[in-house]
């Protein structure tokens, strides 16, 4: 419950139930909400509440696409 800060790809992936590399791919291709400290390829962090909203939106969009004829 609440907002928790995740540091790095490993924690972010674990929170999503995915590998760190999958989390990186989700960020690059699907807009996973991560925050970078400084330069483009620096360390990343994410907030659990933002990840939850992102997952929910992706799930809702997928369900809507499946039910559309």
Which terms would index this structure?
single chain; 3 strands; 3 helices; alpha+beta; 3-stranded antiparallel beta sheet; 69 residues
Question: Could you explain how this protein is built, in words?
Answer:
By secondary structure, the chain is of the alpha+beta class. The chain is globular, with a radius of gyration of 13 Å. The longest helix is centred in the last third of the chain and has 20 residues, at 48-67. Strand 2 and strand 3 (44-47) form a beta hairpin. It contains 3 helices and 3 strands, in the order βααββα. It has helices spanning 8-16, 20-30, 48-67; strands spanning 5-7, 35-36, 44-47. The chain has a 3-stranded antiparallel β-sheet with strand order 1-3-2.
